[in-house]
Every structure is written in structure tokens, then in C-alpha cells.
Amino acid sequence: MTNVIRALKDIIPQRMKDFIRVLKYPNNVVRGGRVTYQQDGLGTVHNCDFMKDELFMKSFNLGASTGSWGGENAENHWRVYVVCWAANHAKHLEGDFVECGVNTGGHARAIINYIDFKNMKKKFYLLDTFCGLSEKYISEEEKKVGKKAGGYEECYERVKETFKDFNNVEIIRGTVPDTLSQVKAEKVSFLSLDMNCKIPEIAAAEFFWNKMVSGAVIVLDDYGYSGYIEQKHAFDDFASRKGVQVLSLPTGQGLIFR
Q1: Where is the signal peptide (predicted)?
Q2: Whole domain around residue 212: which residue ranges?
Q3: How large a percentage of the chain has pLDDT more than 70?
């Protein structure tokens, strides 16, 4: 059945694909012209030329090849584009890169290709349990809405294999915040947080905040995503305390600039 679906995707005209997507998501009908993008809860008729950019698409496909986002059937291009854009912004700043919540490494692999990180004098720290959420860092509020420990397949060896040729990538296994002290970066220009629960994400944001240089960016993967309201509330409070504001994106992500 999967092969049949893939074959159909190859022969169905784009206009028909757009029409089917609108039928599939009746609450997300966009008006005003031809649908240019309909993925991951986001639909628009506006420009999305990044989908035609060869460097971005190669980077996206490398990320998907890690098994992230559904692998070769991944449909979250705009989310990955936001991450790549933020990394491209941060590459011009002093400081290292940190990602807390890596899973199989899709975002990091896309970033490395998109900005040629391999040839930069920066380090990229990748922190994760590589086997899902930790029970002790799931809040009571999150447990009440069904969030549980685990939920992800063991992928540590797979991640090590993915990044073995990148000498400036350091993989740190364990729970955040317990492993944060292993990050030896004195300055940080890029921080990605995608741990699906608020306690470790806020702990990481607090830990790195004073290390972040002016203009540094935090990418919040779940900030506005459906079902993650506790994280949104936590980061609204965090931003208020720091005197900044979270930029909410229609992808479900959020951005904070230092």
C-alpha cells in the first residue's frame, strides 16, 4: 500500500494535490489564490520559494534521512526552514551552537549542511537521552494531559554514526538539566530546545541565557504547537522575566532573541 501511495504522489498533478489537501483539512481552507503550502498544520497561498532552493532542499533531505519527521515522507519543510534560517543568522555571531532535544538528529544534520558548519570554528553540542522523555522531568500538569516517559526509540548509536565525520560536533547523552554542565561553551549564539516538556527546557534556557551573545537566538520547537500549552506558558513567563518577547510563528515554533 505504501508503494502505491508513493506512486500516486508522483503522477498526481500539483493542483490536484493542493485540492486534496484542502479537502483533507477542511478547517484549514485558505482563500485568496492557489495553495502554495499545506503541511504540518500550516496552509498558505503566499510565497514559499525556499521550497525551490537547492541548498535548503538538500539540507532538508539530509535531515530526513536520519529518520526524523517521518523519514523520506517528511512534510514539515517550513519548520526546518525556520531552524536553518536561525542557524544562518547565528553563524555570523560569536559563540557555539547547542541543541537540547535531538532525537535522531534531523535538525542538526540539516543545519550542518545548510551553513557548512563542518568548516566553522564553532562547536555544536547535541544533548538528549536518545530514548525519549524522563519521568522525573515531566511536570504534574503535563502528566495530567497524558505526557509519559519514553515515547521514542533508542537511537544513540544511530546518532553517533550520523555525526561521526564532524569533528566539531559533540554528542552528550543523558537528561537535561543533569548534563548541562558538560557543555563547555563560554559563549552561545544558537540554542534549539525540543524536549517536549517544560522543566528541562526552562532549565536549559536559564543555564545558557547569560552565555548567549547579543543577537543570539533560541528556537522553541513546541512553543505554539497544539497540545503543548504548558511549554508556551512557561516560556511566556521566562521571556517576561528576561525583558524580551517570544515571536510566535504559525509553524508552532517560537523565537527568542537575546
Answers
A1: none
A2: 53-257
A3: 88
